[in-house]
Design goal:
alpha/beta, Alpha-Beta Plaits, Amidase carbamoylase-type protein, binds manganese (II) ion, 361 residues, Aminopeptidase, binds (2S)-amino(hydroxy)ethanoic acid, 25% strand
């Protein structure tokens, strides 16, 4: 695999063999923390440095990948870089229209960050299946279990299936004083009702693994004394069970149609931005991780990842594994996010030992 996707590497004695890669992302959602993703990028660099400093000679090359735009907040789709690497032709086409909230296109943003990419050559980013022998990502848990149970390392067995939906309602709007209640078709109330419907459909599954969030509701014109004539809602729903998650998406769609009808508003958009399958972690990598945690005498537990990661898409290119470390009260996607230097060091040591094992396979 040539180095265009790898910014840092340790060449193997047999560089023709599929490399072992590791990495994560450094972008973050607004008003959030400093550890989500970054631990997996700096940790990858340090793990390879540790192996270099120790004079370790891998058979398979080791590569670090820094994925762009893992968070959906800038260009409207999650894991943009790893999706492209994993071969999403739909994204190759869709990304051409994408602009951020400063009206900067993806290509302009990529060029200003030094990437040499254009509409013509974007497809060349796509990796052949099997381009890597394995891919491994170190990440904070973004949940409370490891800290609560006093466990040092999480060995991830599977990553939950995420879906995101954009909905728009339109009504007549009008004067907040002069339009009497029976005359109204309030797009804002339609959005509010849909948000509660999302919660209802998620809870209805009866499974703790089903989650749903309405993180964005925008009302137009956004004046206290004007009835919303437009509402824009963004919904995130996930489950480790894909079928159950798809059932939630279907019910949300049906509720959008029913609410629009009942309230006399127009459902002007119902767009599923992504509806991804879950991913299973590879047994060879899980076993290598268990060997590493035992060698380091670290407590560990098998667990699923409720957050999605670039690994969810790298699993489409090569066998994948993830290492979790505890984070303070499980906080993430908020400024209080924190991981201790000891926990990060544990994660990097497990990563280095596992990369070394896999590179000798
Ligand atoms: O939302 C997620 O699961 C990830 O942290 N971006
Ligand atoms: Mn995140
Ligand atoms: Mn992340
Ligand atoms: Mn075990």
């Amino acid at each position: 695999m040539d180095n265009k996707a790898a910014y840092y590497s340790l060449t193997g004695s047999d560089p023709e063999l599929g490399a072992v890669a590791t990495g994560s992302h450094i972008d973050a959602i607004p008003y959030s923390g400093k550890y989500d993703g970054v631990v997996g990028v700096l940790g990858a660099l340090e793990a390879i440095n540790v192996l270099k400093r120790s004079g370790f000679q891998p058979k398979r090359s080791l590569e670090v990948i820094l994925f762009t735009s893992e968070e959906p907040t800038r260009f409207g789709i999650s894991c943009l870089g790893s999706r492209l690497l994993a071969g999403s032709e739909a994204l190759v086409n869709g990304i051409k229209e994408s602009v951020d909230d400063q009206n900067t296109s993806f290509f302009d943003a990529a060029k200003s960050a030094g990437y040499v990419v254009s509409e013509e050559n974007l497809s060349t980013v796509i990796l052949e299946k099997g381009s890597y022998f394995s891919f491994l990502e170190l990440h904070i848990e973004q949940g409370p279990l490891l800290e609560e149970e006093g466990v040092s390392i999480g060995i991830v067995t599977a990553i939950a299936a995420p879906a995101s939906i954009k909905v728009e309602f339109e009504g007549n709007g009008g004067h907040a004083g002069a339009v009497l209640m029976p005359e109204r078709n309030d797009a804002g109330l339609a959005a509010a009702e849909l948000a509660l419907a999302v919660e209802k459909h998620v809870l209805e599954t009866g499974s703790m693994d089903s989650v749903g969030t309405v993180g964005i509701i925008v009302l137009h014109p956004g004046a206290i004394n004007s009835i919303p004539s437009k509402s824009h809602i963004e919904i995130d729903t996930r489950d480790i069970d894909e079928k159950r998650r798809d059932g939630i998406v279907e019910k949300i769609h049906q509720s959008s149609i029913d609410i629009a009808k009942r309230r006399g508003v127009k459902l002007s958009e119902f767009r599923i931005v992504n509806q991804d399958p879950p991913a299973k972690c590879d047994h060879l990598i899980i076993n290598a991780l268990e060997v590493a945690v035992r060698q380091l005498n670290l407590s560990h537990k098998m667990m699923i990842s409720r957050a999605y990661h670039d690994s969810l898409f790298m699993a489409r290119v090569s066998p994948m594994g993830m290492i979790f470390i505890p984070c303070y009260k499980g906080y993430s996607h908020k400024p209080e996010e924190y991981a201790s230097i000891e926990d990060i060091a544990n994660g990097v040591n497990v990563l280095a030992l596992t990369l070394a094992q896999l590179s000798l396979e």
